[in-house]
Prior knowledge:
Blueprint: H1 9-19, H2 24-31, H3 35-42, H4 50-60, H5 65-68, H6 73-78, H7 82-91, H8 107-122, H9 126-146, H10 149-172, H11 176-190, H12 196-213, H13 216-235, H14 239-258, H15 262-279, H16 298-311, H17 315-322, H18 333-349, H19 353-366, H20 368-373, H21 375-387, H22 393-402
Helix pairs in contact: 1-3, 2-4, 7-9, 8-9, 8-10, 9-10, 10-11, 10-12, 11-12, 12-13, 12-14, 13-14, 14-15, 14-16, 15-16, 16-17, 16-18, 17-18, 18-19, 18-21, 19-21, 21-22
Amino acid sequence: xxxxxxxxxxxxxxxxxxxxxxxxxxxxxxxxxxxxxxxxxxxxxxxxxxxxxxxxxxxxxxxxxxxxxxxxxxxxxxxxxxxxxxxxxxxxxxxxxxxxxxxxxxxxxxxxxxxxxxxxxxxxxxxxxxxxxxxxxxxxxxxxxxxxxxxxxxxxxxxxxxxxxxxxxxxxxxxxxxxxxxxxxxxxxxxxxxxxxxxxxxxxxxxxxxxxxxxxxxxxxxxxxxxxxxxxxxxxxxxxxxxxxxxxxxxxxxxxxxxxxxxxxxxxxxxxxxxxxxxxxxxxxxxxxxxxxxxxxxxxxxxxxxxxxxxxxxxxxxxxxxxxxxxxxxxxxxxxxxxxxxxxxxxxxxxxxxxxxxxxxxxxxxxxxxxxxxxxxxxxxxxxxxxxxxxxxxxxxxxxxxxxxx
Length: 406
C-alpha cells in the first residue's frame, strides 16, 4: 500500500505511536532514545536521524519504510519506473527452469550487457537497471540451466551481479518485498557460482537489508559469518579478500552505530582502515580485477569515518572528517551521492543551511536518481524549507523535483 508522503518522518512516528496507544515517554523508553529528542522530532523541530528512525522501527516491530514514507509510488509512475519494475518482478518468477521461447546470445554479448548494467549500478541509474535486468535474467537463467561446467558457473556469477544491481534499486526505492526476493534469487546463483567472494557479497547485502527491518543484531551475525569466509585470503593479503573484508568491516561499523555501540563502531572502522592501508591503493572493482571484486580503498574508509560520527550524533566532527575526503576524479557516483546526502544532513544539524543545500545539489549532480529517491533527502529538504526565513528559489525547485512534502 502506498505511504502518505504529505507528512514528514516525525509526523508518521507520532501517528503510529498513537495508533499503538503509547505515550511519547513510553516510546522513548521502549526505543532507548531521548524523550526530549522524540518530542522535537514528532513536532518537526528536529530532523529524524536514521539511527532514531531505526530505533523506533525496531521498538515497534515495523519496517523503517513505515516512517520514511517509501515507496514513493506516484514518483515511480512519473519517472516510468513502474512498468520496468513489474517486468523485473515477472522475470524473477523463473530461476531454475528451461523455457523454449527464451533466445540465448553468445557469452561475449551477454557479458558486455552485464558490464553495462554494473556501470549503471555505480551511476545509480535506476531506470537503466530496471530496463536491462529482466531480459538479462531470462537469458542467464536459460544459460545456467542448459550449460555445464565453467559455462554454468559463469552464468550464475553473472546472474548474481544482475540480482545485486536490481537489489540496489529495490532497496533504495524502499521495496522490501522485492529486496527479499532478489536476495533469495542471488543466494541460489551464488551457491552455484563457485566463488567465495560472491558468497561474501551476498552476506554483505543481506546484512544491509537488516537496516530496513531493524534486525541489526542479525546483520552483525551475518557479517561475522562473511568475514570467516574471506579470512584465509585476508591473512594471505590477497586483494579480493582485503576488499571484501574492508567493506564488511565498514558495514559492521554502521550496524554498530545504529545499535548505539560506539566502541564497536570505532573498532570496526579502525580495522577497515588497517585493511585499506594493507591494500595501499584504491581498487575499483571490475575495472581492475573483474566484476566479482568489490571496490575498496582509503576514500571509502574516509567517507564512512564521517558517516560514523554523524550516526553517533557528532555532527561537527562528521563535517571535519568530510573535508578530508579526497575522492579520485573518476570515483563512483553512487558513493559520492550518498556522501553528499549524508553531509547535507550533518550540515543541517549544525545550522549550515546554505551548505546543506549546496551538498544536496552536488548529490543531484553526480547521482540524480539516488538523490531523488533517498528518503533522507526529502526529510532534509523539508527541514531546510522550514528553517529558512526566506526560501530560495533553488530550494523550492529542488523540493518540487524530489517530491518533498512541504
